[in-house]
Amino acid sequence: MMSTQDSPRIAILGGGIGGLAAAAFLRDKGFDSDVYEQAAALTEVGAGLVIAPNAARLLRRLGVLDRFVKRAVRMEVGWEFRRWENGAVLSAENLEEGCIRLYGEHTYTAHRADLLDALRSAVPEQSIHLGRRCVSVEFDGDQAVLRFEDGETVRPDILIGADGVHSRVRGAVVGPTEARESGICAFRALVPAHKAPEFARRHAQTLWIGPDHHLVHYPVSGDDYINLVAFAPAGTNSVESWTATATVDELLGEFAGWDSRLVDLIRAAETPGRWALLDREPLDRWSRGNATLLGDAAHPMFPFFAQGAAQAIEDGAVLSLCLAADPDHPTAALSRYEELRRRRTARLQEVSHGRSHINHLPDGPEQQARDLRYSQADPLRENGWIYEYDPEGALS
Fold it and tell me: Mapped to the 3 state alphabet, what secondary structure does 100-167 carry?
């Protein structure tokens, strides 16, 4: 692919949600790109995610929402907080009515693979290069240079680092970045719906909160499975990995003494994954020369506001708009993209970080005050700054 003045060569390193979203939005604005993914097959490990109105709006704009909702589950209830020992409902939000009234789109839950499939449908097959493991990212002046395991060297006009939390592009752009242990590990699992208790099969995003722990569950995959994500104190055998596993007995041990219905749900789970949550400060900059960062490579965040995938999708939308607005000056466009996105994502990193302490309070006066606040809150409206965001409005 030859670089021309009208068609810059854009390389996207990483074929996950962020990388494919960027490629799809760039194509929507008339830009071709090459997506380099080290995996031999474009599958998404992990399990479930939440697509709130800010992300659903962008999937609609791409023309892939109809494909996505074939397997996604539309939420009727969300922000449903339950007490750990008896399942008492502390608060619940009507998402079915509230999301449309306030933000014009529904909230969905889905398996990551189904979101990936929808985004991939908006990217030409020839633009996706699988089995391409990047071994180094270096700079020749302001020019990013990619070197792959097979010996190929790529010098794009624009490089987008969408290569995740262990990003090579980030290392080249900003240098080594320290990650601190958060003291929290996460478990994820899928429960076949026919094995799940009835309360877990509702179209509800439910959060059980208790001392040092909390657990979230909701249906995915066209109601075939219940996605379960649990958080507990980190042990010495926790690593930051999507492929490390635990046992069901280990997960049960973390929630011993909790409501028996929740214990039954955990007991029915398939082999849980387990990974450590590492704590990272927001970056001071995302770009260098002709390269920039996107998604977890730029702003990894705790999953407590369920916005990781949504923010990567927003990144792709804003980046494409900035390049379309100033195609002759890509470096300036990348700077504009960073300027527009960095404050918002840093704020989400901050509020997600704070939620871990609030959800894990031990029983006592502070916990009782929290529960009272939850019972009086309207989180769907209070978090309007998240859900009403529109990339085109941000550029104006």
Answer: HHHHCCCCEEEEHHHHHHHHHCCCCHHHEECCCCEEEEEEECCEEEEEECCCCEECCCEEEECCCCCC
- For 105, other C-beta atoms within 10 Å of its C-beta total 20
Q: Is 218 tagged catalytic?
A: yes
Backbone angles phi, psi at 146, to 5 degrees: -100, 135
d(CA 343, CA 212): 30
pLDDT score of 239: 52
For the whole model, what pTM was predicted? 0.95
User: Taking the C-alpha atoms of 79, 84, 86 and 91 in order, what is their torsion angle to the nearest 10 degrees?
Assistant: -20
> What average pLDDT does the structure give for the chain?
93
Catalytic residue among 36, 103, 218, 374: 218
3-state secondary structure of 221: coil
Q: Quick one: which of 376, 106, 91, 82 has its CA closest to 200?
A: 82
Show the tokens assigned to 102.
Answer: 């306030």
Q: Please write the tens of the pLDDT for every residue from 296-339.
A: 999 999 999 999 999 999 999 999 999 999 999 999 999 999 99
> What residue type is 75 in one-letter code?
M
Q: What is the pLDDT of residue 236?
A: 54
Which residue is associated with the tokens 């979230």? 216
Question: What's phi and psi for 6, nearest 5 deg?
Answer: -85, -20
